[in-house]
């Protein structure tokens, strides 16, 4: 906890996913909501097969999901979502002529049944 | 919103994921539940490593997840699920001798903490 | 139902995802919680782009998500989570010098709107 997922469509060649994850993780650390930077587990997946809507025209999206152990307030969740969206907006030059949608979603992880362990730490 | 994910196992060579996404998006537009076709963001992922159950025998699955901003009624969700399942059933010739499971799941997106923006729109 | 997802970072060369899925499915069958082995649909995804925290140093993770039709008790969910974590811990030799985090998360599938069908069964 937390787990961050970033999906991005393959028609965003300027998006460096490694850099994006580092900046997103930095934003999470800076939020002060997480005890240990070590706990933040982020991954990015490039989506090769996608479709935005039904009309023609070049479209793209970046969708970030942040999953948190249940119990945080709506205000905190909203703040985290806005912080991550600000990072995504700023993460690259967006291609001209492409309609790009950026979204951030916050999910709860069921705290009672979440189990974890660390090896070699 | 909405976000549609389609996972399909790699042993379904007749499944054209681009066509499937277009038809699924068309079904969502036709449902009348969404204000703008532009909002529908769909992606498909071919699953190369999978296991259905524990017995031997060729098995496959297609799993569609539709994530909606929270607040829709159970009846609407059920209707959307059934519409998408009907699309999936009809999307290709299913291979003989393979047990194929098709599933549609509807998820809520926490409305309060969801943030988004559009670039170049 | 149930659906099992396993994500694992690409720096875990000893992790055989096929073997892991078979063992995880066997653990689910052995739990006695599921009527038919056929219903268990598991997949694994190797994550090539990831970032754990913000510090330097080699880090890795395995994240298993088990999605169940809503209605099971917290105790059952916790037991399933612990069973799966025990399988993951034992699934390979973990690399020396790498901090590996293993996590298991249990999710509810909205029962009312879940639809499925089987072909060729």
From TrEMBL, chains A, B, C:
This is 5-carboxymethyl-2-hydroxymuconate Delta-isomerase. It comes from the Bacteria. Transmembrane segments: none annotated. InterPro entries: 5-COMe_2-OHmuconate_Isoase (IPR004220), Tautomerase/MIF_sf (IPR014347). PANTHER family: 4-HYDROXYPHENYLACETATE CATABOLISM PROTEIN. It comes from Pseudomonas wuhanensis.
